[in-house]
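dumping these here so i dont lose them again. two proteins, back to back, each one seq then structure tokens. dont judge the mess
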Amino acid sequence: MFGFRKMNEKGLEIYELYGDNGITARFVPERGGLPAEYVVGDIPLFYLDSSTLYDRTKNVRGGNPVLFPICGPLENDRYVTGDGREYEMKQHGLARDFPWQAEEPECLRDHARIKLYLESSEETRKIYPFDFRLEFTYFITAGTLTIEQKYINGSGTDMPFYAGFHPYFYAPGVKAVKLHIPAERYFDIKTGETGIFRGVPDFDAAPETNLVFGSLQENEAWFDRSDGFRVTVRYDDAFRYLGLWVLRDREFLCLEPWMGNNYDMNRGRAVRVKPGGEYRAVVSYSVSKL
């Protein structure tokens, strides 16, 4: 059976869902609607640098930040709307920088779920001039966290966006023993070069690894951790890219499902939702013993 408790830690409201099967999932609505932790017994799915969670001046390094309305950067941090107006927006958009709201969770015998939502405001419209509502329902089961998403356009014009996630998966020691990404080639953001994907990169070769994979051939990617667990990312057809980001000196591996790629907002490749319409998508993360 699952249960729920709400607590305050260092000025942040934490929503915790827990089960008698050893599952614990923690959400921090004020910090971009962040799923901060998901633990199976004592096995963490996510990495979390708690010092960045409690410091509101920093981007949280850990958990599963939401990327909206863009993934990656824009040229010179700027984009132009259909009516010719120019706006400034930093990398990965605005959703992770604004507080979300949470509805009362539902706790059942074999699963729990909680809905978090973000609505446009006067402040968001200074960055992204559209009326929107994001509704993310998180389903917590034994070993799997599923995210059902709705992107709702309340504007009178088409709403362009390409959303995604930036999961910091816990990766102790060797970052990945095996790595499966269903793509043949990658683009190296650091060097600007393309290459052929041949499995686990040499993560020790440089301080940072930052790759983007397109032309995905399957709806699943995974890596095997050195502690004997496999992390699997599943995504529907809305997600056309996977990002791979690693810092050599940190115990995480980011395997990121994206709907769009760097700079797509100004290149006519964004998703467009009609006035009054909505766009739906699903992503799930699993951790399992090898």
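---- next one ----
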Amino acid sequence: MSISLEKIEYELSFLVKACGCKIVRVALTKSGKSQTLQVMIEKLDETPATMKDCENVGRALSVKLDILDPIREHYSLEVSSTGLDRPLVKPDDFKRFRGKNVVVKTYVLKDGRKTFKGILESATDDGISLRSVAQLQDGFEEVDLQYSEISSAHIDGFLDYKKGDSLREQKNKSRIKGS
């Protein structure tokens, strides 16, 4: 049986939640003849998942995926944390990370470009507004994008780290709390 990634995410989400995490993204990548089902997770409190979290979720998902058998061909399972360059997938992700430096790629050219780097100014249920990090001759460049135009987006962890407002700092703070 072969089912969509959305269906796989739905089927796995309950089990991931039982492990104290939530799914950020599910992707199927191919390299040559091998395939990898990537499941990116974060903790329910929206902090990055630890290596232990990834191991626990991976063991639980392996069993569930053996039962579901959602992909006909041979594949490997990879469970990972979001990292500094956390992907923005759903409208709620964009809303949550307003004010952060992001990199957004579009399916087609928009204003002569497909890649936009800037500060995520706003996010609605329909789309986002970005302000360029670099000042142009006529001021800061702003661009509005609908979610249907966005092929991929992620936090620019390096820029946020340089600002002193990084996910890495948030992760370190959560480690100190847990100690």
